[in-house]
Each structure stands twice: as C-alpha cells, then as structure tokens.
Amino acid sequence: QVQLVESGGGLVQPGGSLRLSCAASEFTFSNYAMSWYRQAPGKERELVARSISVGLTTNYADSVKGRFTIVRDNAKNTVYLQMNSLKPEDTAVYFCNARKYGGVWYDYWGQGTQVTVSS
Which contiguous run of DSSP H or E holds residue 80? Predict the structure, then answer.
C-alpha cells in the first residue's frame, strides 16, 4: 500500500527555520512528481513547491520563492522542504503529494504536518 509520511512540523518563531520530510513507500518514487501543499484554516489547499524528477525541475509559489527549497532524494524515497525566514502567514498544515500520469492519474497524499509560526 502506498504511503507518504510527513514529519518535521512544529512551532517556530518568525524568522526561524524548519525542515519537513516526506518518506514514501510502495511505489517507484523516481517516476513521480513530488510536491508540498499547504492549507491554512479557512483557506483552500495551495501548491507550495514541486519537484519533477526528469530534468530536476522545481517550481515554487511566489510567496515562498527565495525562502523555501524542495529537495528530493530518489535513493532514500524521501522529499524535503527546507523552510527559512518563516513568517506567520506560513502557518498551515503541510501535505506531501506524489503524482504521475500513466494512462490515468496516480495521486497520493500524506496525512499532513502542522507548521505554526508565532512569537
């Protein structure tokens, strides 16, 4: 059974850093686009960062460019989100996502990890 397990969330002060991890199992990790999404209370889920294995392409939401970095380790089946210079508006539940198209869409989600940025 496909599993995505996030970790690394917590409470951090504004300006601080956190690193989220997402460990994947039971699928060929390197074939999937791996992404981080977030959802704040009362808001829709939004894409934060995406890593496409082919060509090592990465994409970021404008709100996190220059502060967040997505890194994937295909050997460890793990994707990371390094978050620096955190702001209160980064507070949200962060979700890991794996997606690929193979005739149909294969789309998997983790359970989410809470990030709270507050003094």
Answer: strand 78-83
Write out the two tokens for 6: 């996030």
Task: Quote the DSSP letter at residue 77.
Answer: T
Distance CA 64, CA 82 (A): 11
Give me the amino acid identity at 14: P
Q: What is the pLDDT along the chain (119 residues), one digit of tens a residue?
A: 889 999 999 999 999 999 999 999 888 888 899 999 999 999 999 999 999 976 679 999 999 999 999 999 988 999 999 999 999 999 999 999 999 988 899 999 999 999 999 99
Rounded Cα–Cα distance for residues 32 and 11 (Å)? 30
